């Protein structure tokens, strides 16, 4: 089966590379296009048997499964232009959170799915979030779950938790990357450790923490209990975090949801 990608920016490229390196898809079965063609051609240099198309209509013509990986505000005009080409036997997968599968189904006769990937999928790990349209053919439901299982743990989610689930799965790596960088910078500023050594140690610590959680040795609370000795050094550090963090994460989710609501309003006007 041929699979198409309209848009090869950050997430589009991550999906293409993940599916190929995870042995889910052969490069010769992938058709890609991008507004800036040189970006698509750069991806093709890694996988020469992949096909680069000049326009979206060619990708749709050649493929039955099409991923649309462009900015949310660019999706409606693109779909409106090509809606007659996205016929009932095809399946469209949108990777953007502000556009619901209901909105896609209002416009298109094909099966519609929303899949929200994570940058962790590039390492064939992490979670991908799937939401299926009411009219989505059961064949495509099975196919998408199978496809994403090569690069992630696919999880079905309801529309009402789209934003918070995306914050945790898709935005989370950036949030915790920022916190880790501040952790490293603090160590370098206050002690004699150098940036390179601190970065290596922090990275290996995060990998080890992930393995502990993945293998089920500890939950997050029990892990803290195991490391924190009463009256010890770790407890002193936790105390500083408790005092300093306050309601920072509540504010984080307020901010992401506020921006999400702005995007929803813009998209709703387009689809109405």
From TrEMBL:
GO terms for molecular function: pyrroline-5-carboxylate reductase activity. InterPro entries: 6-PGluconate_DH-like_C_sf (IPR008927), NAD(P)-bd_dom_sf (IPR036291), P5C_Rdtase_cat_N (IPR028939), P5CR-like_CS (IPR053790), P5CR_dimer (IPR029036), Pyrroline-COOH_reductase (IPR000304). Residues 3-97 form the Pyrroline-5-carboxylate reductase catalytic N-terminal domain. NADP(+) binds at residues 6-11. The keyword NADP applies. Keywords: NADP. One of its GO terms (biological process) is L-proline biosynthetic process. Residues 163-262 form the Pyrroline-5-carboxylate reductase dimerisation domain. The keyword Lyase does not apply. Belongs to the pyrroline-5-carboxylate reductase family. PANTHER family: COME OPERON PROTEIN 4, PYRROLINE-5-CARBOXYLATE REDUCTASE. This is Late competence protein ComER. It comes from Heyndrickxia oleronia. The lineage of its organism: Bacteria, Bacillati, Bacillota, Bacilli, Bacillales. The gene is comER.
């Amino acid at each position: 089966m041929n699979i198409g990608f309209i848009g090869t920016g950050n997430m589009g490229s991550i999906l293409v590379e993940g599916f190929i390196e995870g042995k889910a898809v052969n490069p010769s079965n992938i058709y890609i296009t991008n507004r800036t063609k040189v970006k698509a051609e750069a991806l093709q240099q890694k996988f020469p048997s992949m096909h680069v198309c000049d326009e979206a209509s060619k990708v749709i013509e050649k493929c039955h499964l099409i991923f649309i990986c462009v900015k949310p505000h660019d999706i409606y005009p693109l779909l409106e232009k090509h809606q007659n080409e996205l016929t009932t036997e095809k399946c469209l997968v949108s990777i953007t959170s502000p556009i619901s599968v209901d909105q896609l189904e209002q416009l298109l006769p094909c099966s519609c799915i929303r899949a929200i990937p994570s940058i962790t999928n590039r390492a064939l790990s992490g979670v991908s979030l799937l939401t299926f349209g009411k009219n989505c053919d059961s064949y495509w439901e099975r196919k998408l779950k199978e496809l994403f299982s090569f690069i992630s743990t696919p999880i079905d989610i309801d529309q009402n938790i789209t934003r918070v689930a995306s914050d945790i799965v898709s935005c989370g790596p950036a949030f915790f990357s920022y916190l880790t960088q501040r952790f490293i910078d603090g160590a370098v500023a206050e002690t004699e450790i150098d940036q390179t050594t601190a970065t290596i140690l922090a990275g290996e610590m995060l990998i080890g923490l992930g393995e502990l959680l993945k293998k089920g040795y500890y939950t997050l609370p029990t892990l803290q209990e195991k490391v924190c000795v009463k009256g010890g050094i770790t407890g002193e550090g936790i105390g500083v975090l408790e005092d300093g963090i306050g309601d920072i994460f509540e504010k984080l989710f307020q901010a992401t949801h506020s921006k999400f609501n702005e995007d929803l309003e813009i998209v709703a006007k387009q689809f109405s």
